Amino acid sequence: MDRASVEKYAVINRVSKTLNNLMKSKSLIQELDPVELTRYFSHQLLKNRSVEQVMAISEDELSKIIKAVMLFEVMYELLEDLSLEEMEIFDAALSEK
């Protein structure tokens, strides 16, 4: 295995551990596929940062990044399932705030 592969594996392993910890504590995300999430987050992190930069992110910050993206994904899924009437009610509630 070359150095780049080893470094990428280190990122994947780190993201996987962080996701597993989050999934244990958040029941809403337990339904999601951890392998697919690990692949997705590892790819996204490495798309915009070097391996060294990803590995330098604190555990708290990495958890925050992953939680924010997962929250967005869950909200997207929930909103996608709303009927037109339910979406209008949701939009009205948001515009009142």
Describe the overall structure.
The structure is a single chain. This protein has helices at residues 3-25, 34-48, 51-56, 59-80, 84-96. It has one domain. The N and C termini lie far apart (54 Å). Helix 1 (3-25) packs across helix 2 (34-48) and helix 1 (3-25) packs across helix 4. The chain is an all-alpha fold and 97 residues long. It is elongated, with a radius of gyration of 17 Å.
Number of helical elements: 5
Note the overall shape: elongated
Tally the beta strands.
0
Number of domains: 1
Overall pLDDT level: 84
Detail the topology: elements first, then pairings:
Blueprint (H helix, E strand, L loop, with lengths): L2 H23 L8 H15 L2 H6 L2 H22 L3 H13 L1
Question: Which labels suit this protein?
Answer:
mainly alpha, 97 residues
Please provide a brief summary of the model.
The chain contains five helices and no strands. It has helices at 3-25, 34-48, 51-56, 59-80, 84-96.
